[in-house]
């Protein structure tokens, strides 16, 4: 029995890369327009280019998915809806989305548009997958961190629903969970949630270890080792294990790389196409030459990833963050401009190959001018410098591969030539007109009818008239096109003459009519588009700007990570406390009598086995008395509402709320927390679109913002005593606290503490009444004292001097000073009226 072969999905960051992907055997391509896509530094496509791209791909039987996978601000909603209608009208096969508000609106207003949940949505368990499916997504791109067993579990849970799964097969790996990473945004204002990630994880960092002070900050930290690329991952390559991967219940395998060249796209896509075809035929054996081609195209070193059971240490590539090429061996010795290299590879360097020799101090490249001398497993190569023993040697360029891909890209339609069979009936009228009917069969074996009329006319024959053989011979000259004739019926040709140009024009008319018949079958009817546009106009017409009223009572909510922090915060006046769940939570003595004032925070990343442990824990321990939950990822709130009926559910910024549609989707919640990336103006816009069913809004007013959550076991790289804490320091000497869970999962916090102490009056005037102090992992002194300060700020009419004194104390207790995060800059770069 032949195995199920998933669809091969290739990246297309430019029109040339699109052609390369199609020519190389992609079943589908994904690409972005000039707006709302998660790769803003790719070439991308204008609207006209998008329409051309979809026509180009569809004529070759290839699907096109468009990325609209960023967070969407309130002011952008009308524009993005108009953009989605445009994409729907031109026949896009699916749109990838991150923003849950946009997902909800698109599903409701453009029901015929297929939605795919982007990996940016952060789906990593059954609850997230069911949430996406219930809200209209037909496909879910799962988090790269999942194992094969977890994918099977999610697939089983989705059985019977009109949704399937997609995973990444090749390309760059993010250090953290996609969609949760704020690292680039916090460091330099380039948000990964807006497609502008600056890749700070590829920079050098150094471990520092020290004892935390009473505010939870590291005091007198000492360097643990020299700087390394601590957060840099290897690249994913499932090629060696592809025959196992196809047995997973996934509909599509995705190649990452919209920032890559057409040559890269062509090499990688063609290699995976050949492998998948071999698996289908039962002949697949991983080939060293193919693996070398993948490495030479681009490689930071390869890993088969978490999906195939690799550990975090096998996924990481901390020694070097750039392109390595294909590793062939290590230097044994150096003598007079040459190195002896022990070969670790079946691939032998050849004339024209570009090589890099890299040791602990330097690296330099060279091009082989002749085939090297080989003695067993030792090869002698020229060296541009005196390389140390143990230096690594890589092939970074191969002339043969270069020639092959150039030839391949110069004939992009070779694989499609003549692939659409046409049957037609041609009539020559008594008036000399030529017209007829035909049908064309597409790559899915669907038949499309068409009619045609030639712009040219025939003339009466003076000597010999046209014959059917002449006509067929000329029409069959379709070389270089996508079409071929399978049957041509001709009538009325007797007595007419036509020069070759007339028959050539007839052929063009027939091919164009066949082409349009195929393309028109793949776009919605104009009446459908009109109904969608009216639906959107009606929706936008119902939106009313309702400026919220200034609040007179403000609630302080404190998030903590231990019982002692929770008790301290409550005693200091916190209105509500959420205790972060972990499997080692102690008993709740001292909290049980205050069950209305505290609840449990569910971790933002909670894998399926952890979720089951969490539910068992809550159900079978004294924590069952709580009826409040703070969730931090998609789908978790809906799941807990069903599991623990009557519970009060709220959400934190790991479930980012950037617009009123996202807020409304959380209408069953007690409150939802706005994204810390929103500017003051963007917050105003969300709050102005009030709906009676919308939940209350909260905002994080103080605390360390979580920059990254990663499955890397970063703490395992060091030795940290129980009374010590760990930070990493970047090249600019900023330090970032590192928190490691019991499981090893790593959380990296921002280098400066988020604080909106200077914006409280404005926020209260906007109508925000819930303020969140994030005191996790800061200790009970911080929880108590920061709570007391913020209670004064929120509930007292303070004089300017008192405000200044409190602000000074807050700054003094904060980690690395204070920052307003995205409050001034915002997701869309919008500024407030006063600068």
Explain the overall architecture.
- The structure is a single chain.
- By secondary structure, this protein is of the alpha/beta class.
- 30% of the residues lie in helices and 24% in strands.
- It contains 23 helices and 39 strands.
- Strands 26, 27, 28, 29, 30, 31, 32, 37, 38 and 39 form a ten-stranded mixed beta sheet that branches. An eight-stranded parallel barrel has the order 1-2-3-4-5-6-7-11, surrounded by seven helices. A seven-stranded antiparallel beta sheet has the order 16-15-19-13-14-18-17.
- Strand 1, helix 1 (15-24) and strand 2 form a beta-alpha-beta unit.
- Helix 22 (779-795) packs antiparallel against helix 23.
- The longest helix is centred in the middle third of the chain and has 21 residues, at 500-520.
- The protein is globular, with a radius of gyration of 31 Å.
- The N and C termini lie far apart (66 Å).
- Mean pLDDT is 93; it is low at 830-835.
Tell me, briefly, the overall form.
Answer: globular
Low-confidence stretches: 830-835
Give the number of helices: 23
What Rg do the Cα atoms give?
31 Å
The residue fraction in helices comes out at 25-40%
Strand tally: 39
Task: Give the secondary structure arrangement, pairings included.
Blueprint: E1 7-11, H1 15-24, E2 28-32, H2 47-58, E3 63-68, H3 77-89, E4 94-97, H4 100-109, E5 115-117, H5 126-134, E6 137-141, H6 148-158, E7 164-171, H7 183-188, E8 206-212, E9 218-223, E10 235-237, H8 242-245, E11 252-255, H9 262-281, H10 288-297, E12 302-303, H11 312-315, E13 326-335, E14 338-343, E15 354-358, E16 363-367, E17 373-375, E18 378-382, E19 392-397, H12 399-410, E20 420-428, E21 434-441, E22 447-453, E23 459-460, H13 468-475, E24 483-491, E25 496-497, H14 500-520, H15 526-542, E26 555-560, H16 563-571, E27 576-580, E28 598-601, H17 608-620, E29 628-631, H18 636-643, E30 648-651, H19 660-665, E31 671-673, H20 680-688, E32 696-703, E33 706-710, E34 725-729, E35 735-740, E36 746-749, E37 753-755, H21 760-765, E38 770-774, H22 779-795, H23 800-813, E39 818-819
